[in-house]
From TrEMBL:
Belongs to the cation transport ATPase (P-type) (TC 3.A.3) family. Type IB subfamily. It is found in: Cell membrane. The chain holds residues 283 to 565 of 629 of the full protein. It comes from the Bacteria. It comes from Brachybacterium kimchii. This is Cadmium-translocating P-type ATPase. The gene is cadA.
Length: 283
């Protein structure tokens, strides 16, 4: 049975748009020591924009974007939306396979095209360009056709305006913060520094994110905040999984214990105050 005090804490929490799957989860939330955040679509706006395209000799910007967009049209990843938005009339791709945390492969205009991160697809001749874009906080997407790199797409996804304030609020509540991301280490460090997070675990595949949560949870109850895209296992592994934003994927809400209908990260420290009050009344 769920203690009455927890129910009343949930009751007041629901005023600011929180769906709690169980009283136990909300109660545990009041004891968390660490909050781990997914980056893309959680700490960032999740509305990334194409800001740079670099190409290898013989290919132009339009060609690189068009082939990438043909594949990305099949994906729900926030990066996919950035690329398709940059190409109004992309060709159709066939046999597209998405590899979680890596990218996509498919057939476009008779070629085998791949789009993905610089660890999965070696940027080869464009290595220096890839490094340069990542240093400035852009996510770098490599585009390959028939096994050869044809270009890079630099995508910028700004931090959410309340991210740094949220991190300060959590630190004031004596809660540690961590960024978990599948993105490149340099891109991640640049954005984490802006948010005030100093523990950054980058280049994490979905299973790595879950393993990182297990490791963090060994030193105290740990919450994971994500959007369900490539972080559903981590949400499920955390002491308390938190899905942000009603626009988040169904996977997020399914894997989470607590879902916020609004996307304002400050709801996390606010809900923590409520959850702790609920605990204090009980004990
Ligand atoms: P995050 O942890 O920041 O939310 P993800 O785990 O969702 O990032 O993705 C990790 C990385 O995998 C991305 O930064 C990107 O490089 C690559 N990636 C994943 N999905 C796609 C896609 N649809 N198109 C291009 N790259 C992708
Ligand atoms: Mg994500």
């Amino acid at each position: 049975a769920v203690p009455v005090t927890v129910i009343s804490a949930i009751g007041s929490a629901s005023k600011f748009g929180v769906v709690v799957k169980s009283g136990a989860a909300f109660e545990q939330f009041g004891s968390i020591r660490t909050v781990a955040f997914d980056k893309t679509g959680t700490l960032t706006q999740g509305h990334p924009q194409v800001t740079e395209v670099r190409t290898t000799a013989g290919f132009d910007r339009g060609q690189v974007l068009a082939w990438a967009a043909a594949l990305e049209a099949t994906s729900t990843h926030p990066l996919a939306a950035a690329i398709t938005a940059a190409v109004p009339d992309a060709s159709a791709a066939e046999d597209v396979h998405e590899e979680a945390g890596h990218g996509l492969t498919g057939r476009v205009d008779g070629r085998t095209v791949r789009v993905g991160n610089p660890r999965w697809l070696n940027p080869s001749g464009l290595r220096d360009d890839a490094d340069e874009l990542a240093e400035t906080g852009m996510t770098v997407i490599v585009v390959e056709a028939d096994g050869a790199v044809i270009g890079l797409i630099g995508v910028r996804d700004e931090l959410r305006p309340e991210a740094a304030e949220t991190v300060r609020m959590l630190h004031a509540q004596d809660i540690d913060t961590v960024m978990l991301t599948g993105d490149d280490a340099r891109t991640a460090r640049t954005l984490a520094a802006q948010a005030g997070i100093d523990d950054v675990r980058a280049e994490q595949l979905p299973a790595d994110k879950a393993a990182a949560i297990t490791q963090l949870a060994a030193s105290g109850p740990t919450a994971m905040v994500g959007d369900g895209i490539n972080d559903a296992p981590a949400l499920a592994t955390a002491t308390v999984g938190i899905a942000m934003g009603a626009t988040g994927s169904a996977a997020a809400v399914e894997s989470a214990d607590i879902a916020f209908t609004g996307h304002d990260l400050r709801l996390i420290p606010a809900a923590f105050t409520h959850a702790r009050r609920g605990r204090r009344i009980m004990t």
